[in-house]
Write a structure and sequence with these properties.
heterodimer; A: alpha+beta; 3 domains; B: alpha/beta; Rossmann fold; 6-stranded mixed sheet; 4-stranded antiparallel sheet; 8 helices; 10 strands; about 30% strand
């Protein structure tokens, strides 16, 4: 039976290292897909969870009107967890002190995501609350304790109800980044709303429903909910545009996807090269077997069994290594993050195994078919069948497979198309360029007998093979450079958004007369702080004298209705400024001129571009804003982009400085407080009880830890891509090893010194690597520019340093790998080599 | 087929081989006619490019003729497809090549067993060991080709050629890649085993001395069979 022979041949070929690269390439493709789709799925889930913490849920529905109870009932029916929140203001009274507090009434399941942190007393340790305030109890933020002069255990009147203060409320996951509610926060049990009697039919209240569940449940529920959404109801998820981390999350997902695609692309190239090489190495044995009477059927069975075995082994190995790696990675991350990563499902296993099979089948099919066609006559005419090696069909097969794999993995046709087409273009350009370079090299007159001239002669001799080698090297280096630079850009972008010295405390509700003493206080205590922004709330009443409510309703039913509704219904925080804030960019019109500070002049307004589209605004429109009872008319003179990713106060509308003095305002600032400032802060709060401080330290740390986590994930993926790149280089060098051996033998036999050959080999690889590196650097920088703009919606920039880094690292990388592989050949004596190539 | 032709293990009639090149059709062999009796040793000699290797490839069914007939032990090769020709080779033919053509990943013993294994015969081990012993390599059974000298590799190839007791043995310049000492050793081995097994030997060589050891010599020149002469051992064999 042929099976025994097939197994014997397989074992030997495996031991001889003939199948190693194919094995490694399939295993790497499987590993890449598995680790990417599981680790990133796990990290993604965790990031999503953490980001969910910011809204205390996966999705939320907000409105200033009461919700139909059917909405909650239906959500439960869809398997979702729910919580109900009500925000309202009410007077609090204790120890003859009266203060207006921001009340948040919550049902017992709050929060669905994230933690509520509390303290048992002002001086004790903070910890995670396991429940919401019991009925009859309230939790107050620290500022309230000072203002009302109460302690834990005291009683306090909230509206008409009497409550016991049971805990200090340190933080809630969904506390707003920036709001005027400040730290006069009160957490109350939802059942107790009635006791306060503060919520009357005409009261200004804000209702919110929280939802948590699987993506499917959320989607199903949203499908049901969507047709019933009213214009004053706002559905929000973590990935929504104005969510501070949503944008970063999407970017990192795109990056991981891109990196995964590159990993697959590189593994596929390595697989295609090594499969072709393996089959070529089998031409002689197959011709021999046919000559010795082996039937086509038997030969086909033998090699198909080899393919099956190598596929199964490599998939198992890829999955095993991938599993261990992602396990270690997940453990490390869990330690690092102090949280357990959610488990990934079956998808990574199935997807990666499937991709392994597709990879193995598609890349080896054509070389194998060629192999089966090798005529027995090759035993006499040694080069017979060699022409089969350069097969357009194989190239076409490989390209289609790479495309399908990328598409399969990413599920994003457009991204795949862009990447694939640009890579194809790169290959064509590189092929032409490499031919030109080698032709130019031919004209270089070099001293005969030198290592350099030998290196150049070798390069020219294998112009075609070198062009292909150059393309693979350049492609590998390009993809690696591309990812390294993109990673650095992205991470530094994020770090810029959340710098280590970012303010961690927002100070709001500062009265005009308090600005100067506060400034002095900060300076005395050497507390770094930001400028003082004037802030006020206003209700947008009309645009061009057309009532605002009607404009909104016009948008109803349109595709962009959600975007349109988001935010425009609420009363925005407004400011006036003389200079355009950081992270804002004027895209239409002009920033306020100097004359706009003229107190008598027309008031101008600069509007966030998202609102321009939502409200159908144009330059020159007049917006009527209602501040208290005062009507302010402002002319739209510019539209701005706003970077919602930064942890900074961002305003949808900025008015011209001539607003100053027209309305009463409070001021806003931000400071960077450290633990040593704690005492000073309590002094401050006691001295200025109306000032509110919002501690965003925890939130900042959360954001920074997410960035660290994403950076780690990206680093992990990048290292896989680097290994894939190295594998391509190795497979290419290995493919030319036989020919090199022959050359070494000839040169040695002709008396060339070992040093000459070694140096020539080294120079050849240095040259190849440098050329590949240079081309790779140029192409990847241009591609980066396009991808950053198109895919990541960030302003791309050129990176001159990689134009130098590319050729240097290319030369070193290729030379190191090439030299290492060929060095072994050179250590053998000529006789031994002669036998090997006989 | 006549009684006379039945005695002939190889019968060649009007054999012509043409290939198309960029310059047009090129005739490599033209109207070759001869017959070889069972157990006979025949050398095919000629200068490089004369067509002797092409003739060997056609006789062994490795290639197909443009015109003419070859009967190999009764099988008309021109009527057989590649699979059927492979079967004929498996049953009746052994080979020795100039460049040894051993499978690098198999040991000496496994290389010798290869034809039998391809034919589905798994009891060939003892026969292979015996053959390797006959060629003086009983101590090298588990060695890989790369661990053997050129002469030893060719001895393995000879042992392989005789496994399954083929009726016909084709040898293509078997000693051309070896030094004279090893070359002579190989030639002697080949002829000795040939005699012991009663195999028909078709030997392609440009070495007149080696050719003379065969019973008959076919002289090929520019694709045509110039003459057939007797070797010095003609009357001995």
């Amino acid at each position: 039976m042929w099976v025994k022979l097939a197994f014997k041949l397989f074992a030997r070929e495996f031991r001889r290292g003939e199948l190693t690269i194919i094995f490694a390439a399939i295993a790497l493709a499987v590993l890449t897909v598995f680790s990417l789709s599981s680790v990133t799925e796990r990290i993604g889930l965790n990031i999503e969870q953490k980001t969910s913490d910011f809204i205390a849920a996966d999705r939320r529905l907000s409105s200033n009107h009461n919700f139909d109870p059917a909405l909650l009932e239906s959500a439960t029916g869809y398997g979702l967890e729910t919580a109900q929140l009500l925000f309202f203001d009410s007077m609090l009274f204790a120890n003859d002190e009266l203060v207006l507090g921001s009340i948040k009434a919550v049902t017992s399941s709050y929060p669905l995501r994230g933690k509520v942190i509390v303290k048992d007393s002002l001086t004790s340790e903070a910890y995670e609350a396991q429940s919401v305030p019991a009925s009859g109890n309230v939790w107050l933020s620290e500022g309230m304790f000072y203002t009302l002069n109460v302690d834990v255990g005291s009683t306090v009147e909230v509206g008409a109800g009497v409550f016991t203060v049971s805990k200090v409320l340190v933080s809630e996951p969904d506390a707003p980044f920036f709001s005027l509610s400040g730290n006069k926060r009160v957490l109350l049990n939802y059942q107790d709303i009635g006791l306060t009697q503060a919520v009357q039919p005409a009261s200004r209240v804000f209702h919110r429903l929280l939802f948590a569940g699987t993506d499917q449940q959320l989607t199903d529920y949203y499908q049901w909910l969507k047709p019933q959404l009213k214009s004053n109801q706002n559905w929000q998820g973590i990935k929504d545009r104005q969510s501070p981390l949503g944008e970063n999350l999407e970017r990192s997902e795109r990056f991981l996807l891109l990196a995964g695609l590159f990993g697959i692309m590189l593994a596929a190239v390595a697989m295609a090269v090594s499969a072709k090489r393996y089959c070529e190495r089998q031409y002689d044995p197959v011709a021999m077997m046919k000559t010795l009477g082996g039937s086509r059927q038997v030969i086909r069975n033998i090699f198909l069994l080899h393919l099956t075995l190598v596929t199964v082994f490599s998939i198992v190995a890829g999955l095993a290594i991938g599993f261990v790696l992602q396990h270690i990675g997940a453990n490390y991350l869990a330690q690092f993050m102090g949280t357990e990563l959610p488990a990934a499902g079956l998808r990574p296993w199935l997807l990666s195994a499937f991709i392994g099979v597709v990879c193995a089948l598609m890349f080896s099919l054509k070389p194998l078919l060629d192999l089966f066609d090798i005529p027995p006559l090759r035993v006499l005419r040694r080069n017979l069948g060699d022409t089969l090696a350069i097969s357009r069909l194989h190239i076409a097969f490989s390209l289609i497979t790479i495309f399908v794999l990328m598409w399969l993995f990413s599920g994003a046709l457009v991204t795949t198309l862009i990447l694939f087409a640009s890579t194809l273009l790169v290959i064509v350009i590189l092929f032409g360029l490499s031919r030109l370079l080698f032709a130019a090299g031919r004209k270089m007159g070099l001293r005969p007998g030198s290592s350099w001239s030998l290196a150049i002669a070798t390069l020219q001799k294998r112009a075609n093979a070198n062009a292909i080698q150059l393309i693979s090297f350049a492609l590998a280096i390009k993809l690696m450079l591309f990812l390294v630079v993109l990673k650095n850009d992205m991470i530094s972008d994020w770090q810029m958004q959340v710098p280590a010295d970012a303010p961690n405390m927002f100070i709001i509700n500062i009265a005009e007369q308090e600005v100067a003493p506060l400034q002095q206080f900060f300076e005395e205590k050497e507390i770094p702080h930001e400028a003082f922004y004037p802030v006020f709330t206003g209700r947008i009443d009309a645009v061009n004298d057309e009532a605002f409510a009607r404009r909104v309703s016009k948008q109803e039913g349109e595709e962009q209705d959600e975007e349109a509704r988001r935010g425009v219904n609420r009363e925005p925080n407004l400011t006036w400024l003389t200079t355009l804030p950081e992270g804002n960019e004027i895209i239409e019109g002009q920033w306020f001129s100097d004359t706009s500070s003229d107190n008598q002049g027309e008031i101008e307004v600069s509007v966030f571009d998202g609102w321009r589209d939502a409200l159908d605004l144009k330059l020159g429109d007049t917006i009527t804003i209602l501040v208290n009872a005062q009507q302010i008319k402002a002319k739209v003179t510019s539209f701005r982009t706003v970077d919602w990713g930064t942890i900074k106060p961002n305003f949808v509308m900025i008015l011209s400085p001539n607003m100053a003095g027209k309305i009463p305002v409070t001021y806003f600032s931000a400071a960077q407080l450290q633990d040593k400032h704690t005492k000073a802060v309590s002094q401050l709060l006691q001295r200025y009880p109306t000032i509110s401080m919002i501690d965003i330290k925890a939130r900042l740390e959360q954001a920074q830890s997410i960035i660290a986590q994403v950076s780690l994930a990206i680093g992990f993926v990048l290292s896989i891509v680097l290994v894939s790149g190295a594998l391509v280089l190795i497979s290419q060098v290995q493919a030319s090893l036989a020919e090199r051996m022959q050359e070494v033998v000839i040169l040695r036999t002709l008396g060339a010194r070992g040093r000459l050959i070694k140096l020539a080999t080294l120079y050849e690889f240095l040259l190849l690597g440098a050329i590949a590196g240079l081309v790779a650097a140029i192409v990847s920088d241009i591609a980066l520019l396009i991808i950053q703009q198109q895919l990541f919606s960030v302003a791309g920039r050129l990176h001159p340093y990689i134009w130098i880094l590319g050729p240097i690292t290319g030369a070193l990388f290729v030379a190191a790998i090439g030299y290492f592989m060929v060095a072994n050949t050179m250590r053998q004596n000529t006789q031994g080599l002669l036998r090997k190539i006989a | 087929m006549s009684a006379l032709s039945q005695l002939n293990v190889i019968q060649v009639a009007g054999l012509t081989k043409r290939v198309s090149t960029l310059e047009g059709s090129l005739t490599i062999l033209s109207d070759i006619n001869f017959a070889v009796k069972s157990g006979e040793s025949v050398a095919i000699v000629g200068a490089s490019g004369s067509g002797k290797s092409t003739l060997l490839s056609l006789l062994a069914g490795l290639d197909i003729a443009t015109a003419g007939e070859i009967h190999l032990d009764g099988d008309a090769l021109s009527t057989l497809d590649e699979e059927a020709r492979a079967r004929v080779r498996a049953e009746k033919v052994g080979f020795v090549f100039q460049s040894f053509m051993l499978v690098q990943s198999l040991t000496a013993l496994e290389n010798v067993m290869l034809p039998a294994e391809l034919a589905g015969d798994h009891d060939a081990k003892q026969q292979a060991v015996d053959l390797l012993e006959k060629v003086g390599l009983s101590h090298r059974l588990e060695h890989y080709p790369s661990q053997l000298s050129g002469g030893e590799q060719q001895r393995v190839a000879i042992a392989r050629a005789f496994i399954g007791s083929p009726k016909i043995l084709f040898a293509d310049e078997p000693s051309a890649n070896l030094d004279s000492k090893n070359g002579h050793l190989i030639e002697k081995l080949l002829f000795d085993l040939n005699k012991q097994n009663g195999t028909t030997l078709i030997l392609v060589t440009h070495d007149e001395q080696l050719a003379q050891q065969c019973q008959r010599i076919l002289h090929i020149e520019a694709g045509a069979l110039e003459n057939i002469s007797q070797g010095v051992t003609a009357n001995v064999g």
